[in-house]
Amino acid sequence: EPEVTQTPSHQVTQMGQEVILRCVPISNHLYFYWYRQILGQKVEFLVSFYNNEISEKSEIFDDQFSVERPDGSNFTLKIRSTKLEDSAMYFCASSVREGIGSYEQYFGPGTRLTVT
Amino acid sequence: QKEVEQNSGPLSVPEGAIASLNCTYSDRVSQSFFWYRQYSGKSPELIMSIYSNGDKEDGRFTAQLNKASQYVSLLIRDSQPSDSATYLCAVKGRGSTLGRLYFGRGTQLTVWP
Prior knowledge:
The structure holds two protein chains of two kinds. Chain A is mostly beta strands. Chain A is built from no helices and eleven strands. Chain A has strands spanning 5-7, 10-13, 19-24, 31-37, 43-50, 53-57, 65-68, 75-79, 88-95, 106-107, 111-115. In chain A, strand 5 (43-50) and strand 6 form a beta hairpin. The model of chain A has no long low-confidence stretch (mean pLDDT 94). The interface between A and B is medium-sized, with 29 and 26 residues.
């Protein structure tokens, strides 16, 4: 069964450094998402992406964040200058369509980001 | 801010029992609802989606939706120790937030042998 993959599984970085988290969505899916989950807290939406453009972003997704689909398979999240509070699990998700209705989003295994 | 509320638990049931998980949401015009299971340290795994009022069954799982009461539930029949996890209720946004999922904090379920 197709699944979303993410690399790396764990990333440790120092405050102020740039990180790039990578995702390969399910191959026939067109809509891509990033979520994060700080330890012990809710899963929170960051951004959605379709047709090489951001569809929607949350208040969390500030100028430090960017997303890109550099080729036909990868979808990346870049954090330009990491802060301690960016430490979280970052999940990539994809869906075949987006709209009113039960268009399911499938999540990847996540990248645990630790900022020291 | 759309709110999705769940009892945090923990909910503890014996093996073979029915586990009942509940969720309420604040935006009365929400139309798409999802249940995810999350094992500790892992990612959310989709269990079920429900769109229409009433019940939807898939194996041992039944999702129930009551839009008038803004209430979604998940029943797990014949609970197994492997069902022990946190169950997340998610509601899809609408309008300009159509793609976004709003998650509850999750209910931790323990099924003891």
